[in-house]
């Protein structure tokens, strides 16, 4: 068994399985996170968010898999009876991209469902996250990277029901510089990172996302004025978390408490997952 503080992980993501009273922890788990070659993704499981069993190999690439580095930010969703992983991958001479994988079990093994990613082939992209509309239409929200566009863009693309391919062209939701709390990463560029959709009690869509702030890696909240994924999106004045931690997502504990998980600090090899209770007030989210 490992404690949370013993697990080095970036971009933590929790899948809660109420049927087995089990939390599954996914994230960027390669030791050499910034270079190649990559190994894959590991998963841990726990009944209390404190003591974890693992690591277990959730994904290891097939011999002919196109990417060999930057295996980042896996997110896992139960959708149409199977478990789907959205994750970022990179290879020399190819754009970083989000690919979708599938398994029958939260522990994997996850395998690719298509040969190619679902993000545009000539876009540098990362951090795909799933959102399913009220009518059952699946969307993927993802980032068009600052590495290519300088002012990072948050985008959405409709997917086919089987999640195997895009069903239309990407829609730009906003650019990082539009939020009042963002700061440039290096004096000239703005980062978009780690989107995650949350529906509040008024059935409005809130989008958690990360960028640079006054104290480093920061999480802010955007709100869809129309109530659907294409927006338009407005930005809350103050960030949700501003203490050099980010790439957040929300989940409910088995007692119903809403939780935010992030990694902090944002420097390797010291990054760790933390779990913070969150409350919903006046349609927005606040740390308790």
UniProtKB/TrEMBL annotation:
Biological or metabolic pathway of the protein: Glycan metabolism; L-arabinan degradation
UniProtKB keywords: Glycosidase, Hydrolase
One Gene Ontology MF term: hydrolase activity
InterPro entries the record matches: GH43_arabinanases, Glyco_hydro_43, Glyco_hydro_beta-prop_sf
Top-level taxon of origin: Bacteria
Keyword tRNA processing set for record: no
Family: Belongs to the glycosyl hydrolase 43 family.
Protein name: Glycoside hydrolase family 43 protein
Organism: Paenibacillus aurantiacus
């Amino acid at each position: 068994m490992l404690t949370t503080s013993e697990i080095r992980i970036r971009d933590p993501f929790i899948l809660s399985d109420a049927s087995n009273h089990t939390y599954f922890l996914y994230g960027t788990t390669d030791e050499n996170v910034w270079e190649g070659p990559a190994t894959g993704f590991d998963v841990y499981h726990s009944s209390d968010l404190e003591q974890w069993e693992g690591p277990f190999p959730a994904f290891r690439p097939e011999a002919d898999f196109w990417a060999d580095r930057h295996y980042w930010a896996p997110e896992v969703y139960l959708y149409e009876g199977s478990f789907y992983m959205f994750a970022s991958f990179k290879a020399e001479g190819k754009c970083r991209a989000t690919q979708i994988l599938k398994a029958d079990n939260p522990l994997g093994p996850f395998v690719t469902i298509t040969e190619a990613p679902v993000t545009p082939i000539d876009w540098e992209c990362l951090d795909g996250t799933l959102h399913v509309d009220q009518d059952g239409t699946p969307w993927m929200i993802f980032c068009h990277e600052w590495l290519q566009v300088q002012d990072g863009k948050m985008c959405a693309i409709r997917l086919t029901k089987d999640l195997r391919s895009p069903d239309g062209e990407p829609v730009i939701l906003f650019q990082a510089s539009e939020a009042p709390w963002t700061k440039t990463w290096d004096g000239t560029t703005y980062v978009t990172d780690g989107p995650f959709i949350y529906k509040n009690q008024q059935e409005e869509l809130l989008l958690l996302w990360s960028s640079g702030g006054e104290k480093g890696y920061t999480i802010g909240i955007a709100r869809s004025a129309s109530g659907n994924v294409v927006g338009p999106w407005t930005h809350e004045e103050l960030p949700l978390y501003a203490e050099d931690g980010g790439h957040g997502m929300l989940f409910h504990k088995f007692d119903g408490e809403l939780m935010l998980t992030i990694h902090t600090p944002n420097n390797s090899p010291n990054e760790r997952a933390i779990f913070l209770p969150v409350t919903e007030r006046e349609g927005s989210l606040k740390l308790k």
